[in-house]
Amino acid sequence: MAPLLGGDIEYLGYLDHSALVALAGSAAVAVVSPCWDEPYGLVVAEALACGTPVAGYARGALPELLDDPTGILADPGDIPGLATAITAASTLDRRRVRVHAERTCSLTTMVDNYESLYRALAS
Question: Where in the numbering of this chain does the Glycosyl transferase family domain appear (predicted)?
């Protein structure tokens, strides 16, 4: 794959968990451009947990996981819009991104949401 990427892109290959977290945490923006409607978007949650703002396409769960202080979304397939979203996301407050992740993606929040859903379905 590396020879196909060109000189501006460095292919890193497999990274263990700690190296991946360090890389994601040092990125200016996580760019997420799913080809299908992901039901959760673990990559987004992991980026947010690292305090890394997200730019991506508004499809699948991404609109539910992100809000203006944590990420910027473009219409699906809008490449110029995604480029604008990347630039805008790079200016977002990383501390607010991390706080958002703690508030919306934590185990406690997930369990509370599932319990609420199960109660609603059972009643």
Answer: 5-97
11-122 adopts what CATH topology? Rossmann fold (3.40.50)
Are 11 and 1 within 8 A, CB to CB?
A: yes
- Kindly list the domain boundaries of the chain, sorted by start residue: 11-122
* pLDDT tens for the chain, residues 1 to 123: 667 777 778 888 899 999 999 999 999 999 998 888 888 889 999 999 999 999 999 999 999 999 878 999 999 999 999 999 999 999 999 999 999 999 988 899 989 999 999 999 999
Q: Going by DSSP bridges, is the β-strand pair 71-74/30-32 parallel, antiparallel, or unpaired?
A: unpaired
Of 60, 45, 47, 52, which is closest to residue 92 (Cα–Cα)? 52
H or E element in which residue 56 lies:
strand 54-57
- Count of residues in the chain: 123
Q: Can you read off the two tokens belonging to residue 105?
A: 């993606």
